[in-house]
Amino acid sequence: MGVHNRLRLLALASVLIAGCSSSKTHSPPPVERDRCLDAGPVKSVEYDNCVADREASQSMALSALLDDTGDYPQPMEIVDVVDDIYQPSDFPDTPVPMLYKGAGSISTTEKRALPFKVKVTWKYSSKGLIPALRDRVRMDEMERLILPAMQDKGLAKWVCTVTGGKQREWIFYTRSDEAFIAQTRAILAQTGPYPIELSARKEPALSTEMQSGESLPENIRITPKTCVE
């Protein structure tokens, strides 16, 4: 075999070896097993819920990453440990654990101007204390709509949000229960429906003095117990 033929064979072998190496380098990555299959078979309720939670998690993470307003909701704290601002008597007498987030107080002037107490209730079926992620995403969406709309116009004041017993409640004081309910429905109609219930009652009027005869303080404390009552 001549020198030129040997060189051609060596060159061809090099190309073949390089081609094989290249094909290994660019081979597609292995397909990962769908973790939602651990929840249940495809098209089952458990599988669909898992997929919905995964998509909601991705959407929420992207929204938090792109958000530059500072308005993205922060997680609520579990209040099973007595904080410095609360005493044991400040908590409702219930065995149901809960998450609580609330305003520390409301002024006496505001309380007199906002005589109605409104509860916005969202019930969920999660097995744990907190709602499923897909529900939390929708809850946060609703909260970002109604809180500014109610408070900016002076119609209402948000006082607390309580989660527990398979429901989350947003509690407000408002000038008019009928106006609050109508405004809430109008705002949420744009992106709803949302599985909420609205209830309201008129609070007892504040007297000018306390039972001890002292004048009412300028600010009234809001505790987990008084908020959910």
Describe, in plain words, how this protein is organized in 3D.
The chain is α+β, with helices and mostly antiparallel strands. It has two domains: 35-72, no CATH class; 73-206 and 216-228, no CATH class. It has six helices and eight strands. It has helices spanning 3-25, 45-66, 108-113, 133-152, 177-188, 224-228, and strands spanning 77-78, 99-102, 105-107, 116-123, 156-163, 167-174, 196-202, 219-221. Strands 1-2-5-6-4-7 form a six-stranded antiparallel beta sheet. Strand 5 (156-163) and strand 6 form a beta hairpin. It is elongated, with a radius of gyration of 29 Å. The N and C termini lie far apart (100 Å). Residues 9-13, 15-23, 64-83 and 209-213 have low confidence and may be disordered.
Low-confidence segments: 9-13, 15-23, 64-83, 209-213
Mean pLDDT across residues: 75
DSSP helical segment count: 6
What is the N-to-C succession of helices and strands? HHEEEHEHEEHEEH
**What would you call the shape?**
elongated
Compute the number of structural domains: 2
Structural class: alpha+beta
Beta percentage is: 15-25%
Intertermini distance: 100 Å
What portion of residues is helical?
Answer: 25-40%
